[in-house]
From TrEMBL:
Top EC class, one word: oxidoreductase
Annotated GO MF terms: homoisocitrate dehydrogenase activity; isocitrate dehydrogenase (NAD+) activity; magnesium ion binding; NAD binding
Catalytic activity as recorded in UniProt: (2R,3S)-homoisocitrate + NAD(+) = 2-oxoadipate + CO2 + NADH
Entry EC no(s): 1.1.1.87
Keyword Secreted attributed: no
Domain of life of the native organism: Eukaryota
Protein known as: homoisocitrate dehydrogenase
InterPro entries: IsoCit/isopropylmalate_DH_CS, IsoPropMal-DH-like_dom
Family: Belongs to the isocitrate and isopropylmalate dehydrogenases family.
Pathway: Amino-acid biosynthesis; L-lysine biosynthesis via AAA pathway; L-alpha-aminoadipate from 2-oxoglutarate: step 4/5
GO biological process, any: tricarboxylic acid cycle
């Protein structure tokens, strides 16, 4: 089974952690019958400074036509708007129709307050359609700005459907022996339809409809208004399994949830479309530690496993998760963000050994 994988390190520590993803794919036992072919691809702020394009056409073409999946490191964004520059990962999500952003947030099983949840964020619309404008009207006291929040039935139905599928797959993994704090699948629909009855109201109705499909009969469904969701997420994070949300709330919830596990260096994500997934660590380019060789590679290794899950290679994914968990449980070789002294290289080789 040959898998063509694009590697897009991007900027900063992206270049230090993406090689770890490649190495763990190459180290998977041959009994799994997987063969990876890698293509190095450019994107990011440095690429923009060199070539004038943050996302070169070749990168998009190769991903579209030659790859089954990809790993994306991180890109730096200038703090002030730079003419002609816009985020390549946002563009890539659009061009490849990667409509779901999937972010698992998990502690090791032996944690005092174990957490094991996945946030599934709609990734194509809502306020992030970026239809904003600045106007002026004396009746409003002068300058004002406004933005469109667009929610469609199609996007809401498909994001809830993939959330239901993820809940079912997690249940299957549990039944196959994966350690977990949950015993049955639960999807929590998050919205603010009490205030935004049309936009969030549509999201809510569609999500409920999608999850009412017969194949999700075994999945419990609940809903939670987004502000109380934040409260409960911090008070009792262990009670959530799969959370599904429109783009903006999902963005905020997933960064908030990442804070529950201590370091951004641990949290993976995947951008998922039909038959294509990009694994991407949640962290940025971390200029404060760039070049020091101490970036935590675990977010990338877990993102690599997550990519494999969405490509249907669940066994391979499970092996990577287990090797990472073994490193964290043993806690001998940890990077500085986790209070350890190990370098990126030392953490990677320990995890490869455990694999
Ligand atoms: P950041 O995630 O790069 O760093 C935040 C803090 O977490 C820093 O102290 C950093 O050292 C630490 N950290 C992050 N990843 C780590 C890892 N793997 N191991 C150990 N420590 C880690 O966020 P920040 O500083 O706000 O942004 C830096 C740059 O990255 C900016 O240009 C920003 O626009 C960009 N960024 C890009 C993202 C992406 O490509 N998806 C996401 C977030 C930020
Ligand atoms: Mg974010």
């Amino acid at each position: 089974n040959r898998r063509a994988t694009g590697l897009i390190p991007g900027d900063g520590i992206g270049r230090e952690v993406i090689p770890a993803g490649r190495r763990i794919l190459e180290a998977l036992p041959s009994s799994l019958g997987l063969k990876f072919e890698f293509t190095d691809l450019d994107a990011g702020f440095e690429t923009f400074q060199k070539t004038g394009a943050a996302l070169p056409e070749r990168t998009v073409d190769v991903l579209k036509n030659e790859c089954d999946g990809a790993l994306f490191g991180a890109v730096s964004s200038p703090t002030k708007a730079v003419k002609g520059y816009s985020s390549p990962i946002v563009a890539l999500r659009k061009k490849l129709d990667l409509y779901a952003n999937v972010r698992p947030v998990k502690t090791v099983a032996s944690a005092a307050n174990p957490i094991d949840m996945v946030i599934v964020r709609e990734n194509t619309e809502d306020l992030y359609v970026k239809e904003e404008r600045t106007l002026e009207d004396p009746a409003r006291g002068g300058v004002y700005a406004e933005a469109i929040k667009r929610i469609s039935a199609r996007a809401s139905l498909r994001i809830a459907t993939i959330a239901g599928e993820i809940a079912l797959r997690r249940q299957k993994l549990r039944e196959a022996g994966a350690a977990s704090i949950h015993t049955s699948p639960l999807v929590t629909i998050t919205h603010k339809s009490n205030v935004l009855s049309q936009t969030d109201g549509l999201f809510r109705t569609c999500a409920k409809e999608a999850l009412a499909a017969p194949r999700f009969a075994g999945v419990a469904v609940e809903e939670q208004i987004v502000d109380s969701m934040v409260y409960k997420l911090f008070r009792q994070p262990g009670s959530y399994d799969v959370i599904v949300a429109p783009n903006l709330y999902g963005d905020i919830l997933s960064d908030g949830a990442a804070a529950l596990v201590g370091s951004l260096g641990l949290v993976p994500s995947a951008n998922v479309g039909e038959g294509f997934a990009i694994g991407e660590p949640c962290h940025g380019s971390a200029p404060d530690i760039e070049g020091k060789g101490i970036a935590n590679p675990i977010a990338t290794l877990r993102s690599t496993a997550l990519m494999l899950e969405f490509l249907g290679e669940e066994k391979a994914a499970a092996k990577i998760y287990a090797a990472v968990d073994a490193n964290l449980e043993e806690a001998k070789l940890l990077s500085p963000d986790l209070g350890g002294k190990a370098t990126t290289e030392e953490v990677v080789s320990d995890i490869l050994k455990k694999l």
